[in-house]
Amino acid sequence: MTLETLSVEFDAGICRVRFDRAEAGNTINAKMIDEISAVLQRCEEQTSPPITILVLEGAPDVFCAGGDFEATASSTEPDDPEPLYNLWLRLTQAPLITISVVKGRANAGGVGFVAASDIVLADEGATFGLSELLFGLFPACVLPFLIRRIGFQKAHYLTLMTRPITAEEALSCGLADALESPVETGLRQHLLRLRHLDKTAIGRYKNYMSETADILHQRKAPALDANRALFSDPKVRANISRYVNEMKLPWEK
What we know:
Layout: E1 6-11, E2 14-19, H1 30-45, E3 53-57, E4 62-64, H2 69-74, H3 82-93, E5 97-102, E6 105-107, H4 109-116, E7 119-123, E8 127-129, H5 142-150, H6 152-161, E9 165-166, H7 167-173, E10 178-180, H8 183-194, H9 199-212, H10 215-218, H11 220-232, H12 234-246
Parallel strand pairs: 2-3, 3-5, 4-6, 5-7, 6-8, 7-10
Antiparallel strand pairs: 1-2, 8-9
Helix pairs in contact: 1-3, 4-5, 5-6
């Protein structure tokens, strides 16, 4: 596979995907969404050997900083949020175990990848934040996945406060499943156990769990509508452009 935004390794039923836009804080753009979707398609279809585990990783200082504000500021039309929502939805349903390994900062859409993962392993230096309200936005597409993972009030508080939480706080609220230092040691321990699970069994189990907690399908249309309205608001787009061009938040002189 020829990839621009990712580096990918396949080994003995495990696919490791590393976000590879370090110059842009591993922010999400349309190309990254397409490439992760293509990798996921291969993981679902490969049979020899079957891929049963997909690991998502970032750089040591940033897992994923969210949407690409520079692309937003330079575009006259907002991006369609549905491909990203569909990708996260697919991660929750794919017949493989998805693991986010978080070092450094996970922000906004980066938290979306975390919340859509089956297992989240955090390094002791990891942070998790939703900064959207600072710009007049809110994380419409992230919230269904986050609520499903940590509950309404905790997601509500994280959204309102806009401040990053530590790995310890993420573990306490259920956003992270394990806190490891170094996190690679914890990943190895998890893989030793998880690699024995059968792909068909994983798929059946995840399908059952998806139907048990169906908030992701129920809230998809409202989430997409809200996202489109927010990113079409001239005031919001001006706030984003000012931040990109001047590194100033809306209230700063």
